[in-house]
Every structure is written in structure tokens, then in C-alpha cells.
Specification:
alpha/beta; six-stranded antiparallel beta sheet; eight-stranded mixed β-barrel; 22 helices; elongated
Length: 631
């Protein structure tokens, strides 16, 4: 029910009445006759709100004779005292302080049916009375209701659509917020205006019914569901079959939501949000276990095959589950959490449900923040290189260094490569970043060579992502940088992971071969963790194998050494030497490890035993001999 005032709230001052010609007796007779026979239900009401006269149409609407309505309170007849706002506006018209008032009321017809009525109250000039008219708008309201239903429901599944879902979700969250404020302040809701007569006062009618309801939890839950592989159904069997499948899925979702236990403390809404996405909204949820039970029930229900007019189909779904306190939550935040959790369910293997994890989401948000700032960070100069020595195990001298990039992030501090390199590979910024690393490392290696002309020059090892080979002309980049910096090709080593190198074919393999022909050394990083295709290894232009740290860590416990670890490493070293390759051991942390690696013939070592990754000036001090290695 609603009240909508019309016209000025304060008419012209009574001292300056507009000039109107007096009505003749004939005109008055005609007006009275029109009033009596009019199909529009009407009544004249005095300043006290009592009916002076009513026509037969109003009597028929209310199930009585028009004459029987005389001296009855007009507000009682059409329910104008049901809420404070309507009552106040009506009284303002009676007192001449408002020129017109209109509202919509739902009345009960004498035959028992409900009808919608539009009530209009307006003053009758020069009489001190008001005219109350009542129009039956039930058909219009029913049409509006049907149109709204069509607007708010999906034609394929007959479920509520996205618009109705968000309307219901927003209403539930707003209600939770209002209840929280009411509980905190002790407010009982709006009160009726002063001056309302006792028979019309009904304070309890204005309080939210929810504030007195039982079993409310103030929480909200959502299962956000996406069918796995639905596109294949449309592509192979056609959209007609796909629509039938969606309708059948909608039926099973509704059955699950209606089953005992899922709505015992609140309402629910099953909606189709678009495509093959559905949502089950649970108001006043009781905790994550309730939503988890619902998700499990949905998955079990969808596992049963669908029989669609001779087509027997099986389908699975991924579900993101979110359950939290409703107060303080917005619809946007809830849907973002549900969408993220649905993505996790699909990424974890599909055909499963996943519960929202704030810690995992914080990691995702951090990753997203890094991704959005990575490209500009290269331009702003936020990256720097540190270098870790590569040491000759036989003589203990530094033979080279590995360049390791660090991101000096203004918000997150200094970040190691494992925090951002994978992101750079995904969005393609690894090409620009890798080019900068390569140029900076070559410039530094050349500078050390110039500063220490009598010392054996160090080679510099730079990590290269396979996307750099695909998305850029790596050969041209390397050739150009070597020419610009003056660094000899044999003093540059490029490291690629084992999986990237072993899977090389076509353009990547041609690029590696061209770089090797140029004199650049190619190293396989983390060897032993990927394909380990030794037969393929002999056909690659590789110079160095870098054994993964997992092999070396097996050497740490000298008192309880595992002979198998040493046999494996020794076999790999011997095989590499027979193929003309040198071997570098990563993660060397103890002198015992270094001694055992030296004994089995490993060429170089790298790890904290010798040095962590340090700034360029520390490497210069090592070359000069002023900073000894920690051996």
C-alpha cells in the first residue's frame, strides 16, 4: 500500500479566495444526479471525516446501500488509518492544509475476494467538505503483476532471473542492516503522527514484522553454481536440448532447496543468473555446514542422468559457497566472493564445491594488485638485480654469478621472483621485464670486467621464460644487448627450466640453437624435476645442467646418508660429462654437501654455503678478494 500526495501541500491563503460564479439550482441538481448515478464510487466527507453522502457505486463496492454509509468514518471504510503516513496526509486534506491526496489500498469485497482500489481525496470548493472517490484498479494491478513476473523470471527455466535475484539479495541485506541498527539503538520503528484518534492508533502495525519473528540469524548464504561443459551440449546437440537441460537442472535445484533442513530458519531463492549459471540464496542461514550440506545435495542430485526426450545426458557442476553475517556485507562483495570461490572450484578440478577462504582470497587480491602494477613498475625502475656466486667446487674460486631480480614494491616491500614472475608470464610483461634483466645483467658483468681487467672475467647467468622465446625475438635481443654492452657471448649463460627446454620444438628450439651458435651458453635449470628425457637431452644445444636442490638436500644428513641419493647424482654427473656438459649443484648449504659433490665430480656449486644473493658491489669485493666466500 502506498500514499502519493498530489498538488500543493499548502493551498492559497484563505483570505484571498479565487473568484467563482455561484451555481444555479439547475446546476446543483445536475451535479447531485451525476454523483448518484456515477459508476465511480464516491462519498462526500465533512471536516470530521464522517460520510455526509455516498453514491450507490460506493455502497456496491463495500457490500451495502449508499445511504447506510452516512455518518460513518470514511477512513474506516477504505482503510486510511493503516499507516501513519497515509493517515497524516488524509487529515491534512480534511483540515484544508493539503489540496489533494491519492493512495492505493487493498480492500476486501463482500464476496470475499480482495481488490485493489485507488483512493483519491480532494476538497469540494466553497463547501468545507471533501470528495472521496474509490476506483477499482484490480485488473490494472493484475496486469502489472503479470508483466513484472515476466520481467523478473527466466523464460527457459521459469526461475527468478538476475534482476529479481539481486532485488531479493539487496532487500535481505538492507533488512539485516536495519535490524542491526534497531537492536543497537532500541528503536521500535516509525510511530504514528500526533493527533491520530485512539481508534486509529495501531503502533504494532508499523514495526517490522521481522523484528518480532523467531529463528532469525542475521546471516546469509549463497551457492553459486556453474554447469561443467554445458557449451559442448549446445554445440553438439543444439540449443533446444540445451534449454531442456537447463530447465531440468532448475527443477532439481528447486527440489534441493525445498528439501527439509535448508529453509528451516529463513527464506531461499533459486535463480538463473544467465547462461548456465544458477544461484541458491539462503536467508538467515545457520552456518557454513548448512550451505555445505546444500552444495553436497545439489552435486548428488545433478549426478543422476537426465532423460530429455530420448537424449540421456550426464552433467556435473562446480559450486562456490559463501556464508557470512549479513550486516556489513554488500551485494557486490557477496557476489565477488561467490564468483571467486566458483573459480577456485573449477580450477581445483570441477565437479565439486569450494568454500570461500578469506586467506586464499587475500592472496588472490595481492596477486591481482601485483598484476595491475607490474608493467608500470618496469617503467618506474622499481626492479633491481642481486647476484649469487657460482663457485668452482674443485678450486673454490667464483666462476660466475646468477642474476636474480627483486621488486622493490612501494606497498609490499622487497619481493623475490617467485612472487611475481609467474604473473609476468601470464600477462606477457615478462618480455619487457626479461629484456631489462638481460640488459642490466650484461652491463654489470661487463663493468666488473672493466674494473678488474687482470682477473678472470665472470660469466653471468640469466633466467629466461619460454614466453620470451615465443613472444619476442630473443635471438635479436641477445645479439643487440651483447653488441651494446660489449660483453663476449661466452660470458652469458641463459637458464631455462627443464620442462621448457625438453618440450622445445619449432621456434623455441631454433632460437636455442641460434643462441648456442652465437656462443651463448644454454643451461637447464632445476634438472631432475620435469621430463628428465635423457635421450632428448643429447639433441639439444645445452651446455650446463643445474641439478635441482632436492637432490642436494638429500646430502645434508651425513651420519644417516642415503646411498641412493649419491648414486643418482653421481650417475647424472657422469652422464652429463659424457655428453660434454658441465654440472652445477643448487642449494649447497653445508661443507659436507660440497665435499660429497666435489668427490663425485660435480663442477660448480651455488648456495648459502658460499653466499646469498647480494648487491653488485659485494660481488666486486669477492673478485678483489676483500670479501672471502663463506666456505
Amino acid at each position: 500500500m502506498s500514499g502519493t500526495p498530489e498538488g500543493p501541500a499548502h493551498p492559497e491563503p484563505p483570505g484571498i479566495p479565487p473568484a467563482r460564479p455561484a451555481l444555479t439550482e439547475r446546476e446543483l441538481h445536475d451535479y447531485r444526479a451525476a454523483f448518484r448515478v456515477s459508476r465511480l464510487a464516491m462519498a462526500l466527507v465533512d471536516r470530521d471525516g464522517l460520510v455526509v453522502a455516498a453514491n450507490d457505486s460506493l455502497g456496491a463496492l463495500l457490500g451495502t446501500d449508499g445511504a447506510a454509509l452516512r455518518e460513518q468514518a470514511a477512513a474506516d471504510l477504505v482503510d486510511l488509518a493503516a499507516d501513519g503516513r497515509t493517515w497524516h496526509a488524509y487529515r491534512e486534506v480534511l483540515r484544508g492544509r493539503r489540496s489533494r491526496f491519492r493512495c492505493t489500498r487493498r480492500l476486501k469485497h463482500p464476496d470475499g475476494r480482495k481488490l485493489w482500489a485507488e483512493v483519491t481525496v480532494a476538497p469540494v470548493p466553497d463547501t468545507g467538505r471533501v470528495l472521496l472517490s474509490v476506483a477499482d484498479i484490480s485488473e490494472r494491478r493484475e496486469l502489472q503483476a503479470r508483466l513484472r513476473h515476466l520481467q523478473m523470471h527466466d523464460p527457459v527455466t521459469r526461475l527468478p532471473n538476475r534482476a529479481l535475484f539481486f532485488e531479493r539479495l539487496s532487500a535481505a541485506l538492507e533488512c539485516a542492516a536495519a535490524e542491526s541498527v534497531e537492536a543497537a539503538t532500541g528503536a521500535a520503528g516509525p510511530t504514528e503522527p500526533a493527533g491520530a484518534p485512539e481508534p486509529y492508533r495501531s503502533p504494532g502495525a508499523y514495526r517490522s514484522y521481522r523484528s518480532h519473528s523467531h529463528g532469525r540469524t542475521g546471516r546469509i548464504g549463497l551457492c553459486y553454481l556453474d554447469l561443467d561443459g554445458f557449451k559442448a551440449v549446445n554445440d553438439t546437440l543444439g540449443h533446444r536440448v540445451g534449454d531442456r537441460l537447463l530447465a531440468a537442472v532448475a527443477g532439481r535445484l528447486t527440489e534441493c532447496a525445498d528439501s527439509a533442513g535448508y529453509t528451516r530458519s529463513g527464506g531461499h531463492l533459486v535463480a538463473r543468473l544467465g547462461g548456465d549459471e544458477f544461484a541458491v540464496l539462503v536467508e538467515d542461514s545457520t552456518g557454513t555446514e548448512q550451505l555445505a550440506d546444500l552444495a553436497r545435495s545439489v552435486l548428488a542430485s545433478l549426478e543422476r542422468p537426465f532423460d530429455l526426450g530420448g537424449q540421456r545426458l550426464s552433467v556435473s557442476a562446480s559450486i562456490g559457497v559463501v556464508e557470512r553475517a549479513a550486516f556489513g556485507t554488500t551485494a557486490t562483495e557477496l557476489m565477488q566472493a561467490a564468483d571467486t570461490t566458483l573459480y577456485w572450484a573449477k580450477a581445483d578440478g570441477k565437479a565439486r564445491w569450494t568454500l570461500f577462504d578469506p586467506e586464499r582470497n587475500a592472496h588472490r587480491m595481492t596477486r591481482q594488485a601485483l598484476s595491475s602494477t607490474l608493467r608500470p613498475a618496469v617503467e618506474r625502475g622499481e626492479f633491481a638485480l642481486e647476484y649469487q656466486p657460482l663457485v668452482d667446487l674443485a678450486g673454490g674460486a667464483v666462476r660466475g654469478v646468477e642474476a636474480l631480480v627483486r621488486w622493490h614494491h612501494p606497498q609490499f616491500g622487497v619481493l623475490p621472483p617467485n612472487r611475481f614472475v609467474a604473473i609476468a608470464e601470464e600477462d606477457g610483461s615478462i618480455v619487457e621485464l626479461g629484456r631489462w634483466v638481460l640488459r642490466t645483467a650484461c652491463e654489470q658483468a661487463r663493468q666488473w670486467q672493466k674494473d678488474h681487467p687482470r682477473e678472470r672475467p665472470l660469466f653471468v647467468s640469466v633466467n629466461v621464460a619460454v614466453r620470451q622465446v615465443w613472444d619476442s625475438d630473443l635471438v635479436a635481443d641477445v645479439a643487440g644487448i651483447l653488441a651494446e654492452t660489449g660483453l663476449a657471448p661466452h660470458l652469458l649463460q641463459l637458464e631455462l627450466t627443464e620442462s621448457a627446454v625438453m618440450g622445445s620444438a619449432g621456434r623455441p628450439l631454433q632460437a636455442l640453437q641460434a643462441l648456442s651458435d652465437m656462443g651463448v651458453r644454454i643451461a637447464i635449470d632445476d634438472f631432475g624435476t620435469g621430463y628428465s628425457n635423457l635421450a632428448y637431452l643429447s639433441r639439444l644445444p645445452v651446455s650446463v645442467l643445474k641439478l635441482d636442490g632436492s637432490f642436494v638436500r638429500g646430502f645434508q644428513d651425513e651420519e644417516h646418508a642415503n646411498p641412493a641419493d649419491e648414486l643418482i647424482v653421481e650417475a647424472l654427473v657422469q652422464l652429463a660429462h659424457r655428453l660434454g656438459l658441465t654440472v652445477t649443484a643448487e642449494c649447497v648449504e653445508t661443507s659436507g654437501q660440497a665435499a660429497r659433490l666435489r668427490r663425485i665430480g660435480c663442477d660448480t656449486g651455488q648456495g648459502w654455503l658460499y653466499s646469498r644473493a647480494v648487491a653488485p658491489d659485494r660481488i666486486a669485493a669477492m673478485i678483489e678478494g676483500t670479501t672471502p666466500l663463506r666456505v
